[in-house]
Amino acid sequence: MTVAIIGGTGIYNLPGIEVEEKHIRNIYGEAMVYLGKGEYKDVVFLTRHGVKHTTPPHKVNYRANIRALKDLGVSRIMATYAVGAISRGYPVLELAVLRDFLDFTSGRAFSFFDEIERGIGHVEMSKPFCPTLSAKTIELALRHGINVHDGATYVATNGPRFESPAEIKMYQMLGGDVVGMTACPEVYLAGELGMSFGAVALPINLAAGLEENITIHEGNIDEVRAKMIALMLDVLKETTDEECQVPILL
Ligand code: HPA
């Protein structure tokens, strides 16, 4: 049983955990991962944007990354996303547990089922984020005294530009709560390969039009990120493959 944490903007290591860097080649390209050592030997860490945030959201090789995790034997993933807050229920610098998404990305390699030899597969997205991992995140956050807000719908945009105020107004009308550039196709690629996937978003700004200009709020961000990583590690430790749900492939 191996688990993974995918870190987004601002998360480039797992503090206090000794790791070994590994480059993994597969038919989709190359992925760089860190393998935990000692007590954390079953934990894989992947930093989505590369070591020094060198890969923009639309250029991330999502398929190489997710395939690499699968080939390492990963069965459960917790991912983090830096986002803009659209709805009032998801305040800046407080964690949001993702439950659903609206995918506005385009032009990305977004499926493993686009080559004839793999056949045709349709991954079900009724519950895109594993309900067990999400529920455990809420439960443990309460126990750790961390503020979390459940039930967020993530709007995935293509980036790398930010949105216009009219776009944010539209996403708000469609039920979007937070906006970011990377959860799609990541979440459904993991589903296509049968891995369960939970996610926590950290709003770092109010979305366009909600303030005069986009302002990135740093505040106690390092402290929040450290707590978020510790929470995700605990969530993975306190859940099992048996109780986690994987989207169905039809
Ligand atoms: N929009 C899109 N992606 C983001 C934002 C935003 O406002 N903030 C952080 N990532």
How would you describe the overall organization of this protein?
This protein is α/β, with parallel strands linked by helices and 250 residues long. Helices cover 24% and strands 28% of the residues. The protein contains 5 helices and 9 strands. It has helices spanning 62-71, 131-144, 165-174, 183-192, 221-237; strands at 2-7, 19-26, 29-36, 43-47, 74-85, 95-103, 148-156, 178-180, 196-206. Strands 5-8-7-6-9 form a 5-stranded mixed barrel, surrounded by 4 helices. The relative contact order is 0.22. The model has no long low-confidence stretch (mean pLDDT 94). The structure holds hypoxanthine.
Report the mean per-residue pLDDT as an integer.
Answer: 94
Distinct ligand kinds: hypoxanthine
Largest sheet: 5 strands, mixed, barrel
Structural class: alpha/beta
Helix content: 10-25%
Tell the overall outline: globular
pLDDT below 50 for ≥5 consecutive residues: which ranges? Answer: none
Instruction: Enumerate how many helices there are, as a single number.
Output: 5
Cα-to-Cα separation, first versus last residue: 25 Å
Structurally, how many domains make up the residues?
A: 1
Examine the secondary-structure arrangement and name the CATH architecture.
3-Layer(aba) Sandwich
